[in-house]
Amino acid sequence: MDIASVNITSSPPGTLLTNHPGGEEVLQIICASVQVNATSPARHVAIVNSGLSSELREVVNRDFRATNAEASVAFLAVDREGYACVISDDGRGDSYFPVAAAVAVIKASWGWDESERLLIRVNDREMRVRAHYDGGRWVVSEEEL
Question: Band of the pLDDT at 8, cuts 50, 70, 90?
Fold first, then answer.
């Protein structure tokens, strides 16, 4: 099972976008740096807190990637106590765990989700993860379902 060190790189409340094509709602973008298993390079992950249509997700994804080409971008579709579902349009099969780890830390730290374990669904894959702050950093571990 994987273990990740997660650092939220956005300041609260994240980046708020009110001027995006076709949108009247406010988009909240929270960025994180995720390093899996301490040996891999850190991955940049952006979580967009908004229920957008697939067309608007594509526009936001494209616009965000214009300045952050290497980031994994995921859109929060469902957020409730102990559970989150995100849609990741980046198509990278190896981004499931880094995205889930970022979501878990955002829920645990900014969302005050005090669940011992979180079930995170990234596209069609579900993962049970545990997030905790060890005094210097957030650590997320994947657990058996």
Answer: very high
Dist. CA 73–CA 122, nearest whole Å: 11
Rg, C-alpha atoms of the chain = 14
Compute the average pLDDT of residues 75-86. Answer: 95
Q: For residues 33 and 6, what is the distance between their CA atoms, to the nearest angstrom?
A: 6
Average model confidence (pLDDT) across the chain: 87
pLDDT of residue 5: 95
Residue 82 pLDDT greater than 60, yes or no? yes
Helical H segments across 23-65, by residue range: 54-65
Cis peptide before 13 (omega within 30 of 0): yes
Question: Do residues 4 and 130 lie in contact, with contact meaning Cβ atoms separated by under 8 Å?
Answer: no
First to last CA, the chain: 11
Per-domain residue ranges for the chain? Answer: 3-143
Is there a contact between 72 and 6 (Cβ–Cβ < 8 Å)?
Answer: no
Which DSSP symbol is given to 5? E
| CATH no. for 3-143 | 3.10.310.10
